[in-house]
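Please, structure for the following, as tokens.
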Amino acid sequence: MKKKWIIFVVLYLILAGVFVIGKWNLFDLSGDTSTSNENQKVVKYLDIFSEVLEKVEKYYVEKPDPKKLFESALKGMVSSLDPHSAYLTPEEFKEMNIETRGEFGGIGIVITIKNGILTIVSPIEDTPAWRAGIKGGDQIIKINGKNAINMSLDDAVKLLRGKPGTKVTITVRRKEWNRPKDITLVRAIIKIIPTKGKEIGDGIYYLRITSFNEKASEFTHKELEEFLKKGMKALILDLRDNPGGLLDEAINVADMFIQKGLIVYTKGRAPNSNEKYYATSYHDVDKYKYPMVVLVNDGSASASEIVAGALQDHKRAVLMGTRTFGKGSVQIMIPLEDGSAVKITTARYYTPKGRCIQALGIQPDITVYPLQVTETEESITEKERQQIHEADLKGHLKAIQRVKVNEHLTQKGRELIDTDYQVRSAYNLLKGVLLMENFTANGKK
């Protein structure tokens, strides 16, 4: 057994040596002393690593699984860099590719780690988590009774995902609650349709982008074309609780609204991490010159922050809502020979005006909190008692025509603005802009 383990370690060191040589080739091999010292440190660390492996094999109470040991070592090494870097096993890499295409199995949440606690960035709309009332900012402290404090993202994903129809119980902590609550969810196939469009009324349309998967720009373009055919005069673009996705899709969406100039750029340590992305007008953007409000909140992350930041910097839209999440780092996915992959953070995002998104987010132009405004019977009665109009006076002259309310809302539009205060605020702003445009146009006649 010992001989087998020695052979195993020797093979590892040979492979590790190839890795180190490959690493050295990334640097200047001109004999620089500092580079040479770094290489010596790497070799020393590898020696320690092999020694630890040998001790584990020799002394651990049960026979360890070499594959599991190496995968755990790789995961620990990469995940220690930041919350978004990770080593993915072949199964996990395959699952991620499925997710990027817009379909995966699970409960429908996007999670990150804050101070060692699994924190929900946002629920995905029309999923089990979303229907159960899960919110961005909620903390998961247990999964199926297992302590989730200091649990890695990979381990959490493994526990949360599973076959459709099976159940998973998460213990959720929320600031507004006195104590954590157990929420049992039934897993399902999560199919993400990236856009949802509605006509609100008065020429104002509403478009929600739920994620930037590989279909996001295609669906966005189709929705906008339909809106324009119906006579759209203004647009509410909703990026709230959008956790992000593919960089190319974010750029393509922003490109539909920006005629020319920089959309986003990245800066990193490696020269090939420094990129600039410009508007190309690959769609006819001239017809998209209409007033816009972009809704954002603390669940708007990554790709959605790129779009929001670009539109804000180009003064193409008014940003409304609350400060965004602040996930402004770039990850690249590097496939490995055995089907696994390593996801590494290589750069930071910057808006066209040079604002770094990372850990700061995007501050909206107009801060509007997600309030819920309701009228009770008591308050309505009080208002009626206090209000006096001409019609209340004895002997008043009767009206000769009815008052026309200058509001033409669809049923879905009315439901939306009655239940969503931030959408209502965006609608009121755009309606005011359209009224002013009409006043200005009439004044020029």
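Confidence is low (pLDDT under 50) at residues 1-31. The CA atoms of residues 49 and 55 lie 10 Å apart.
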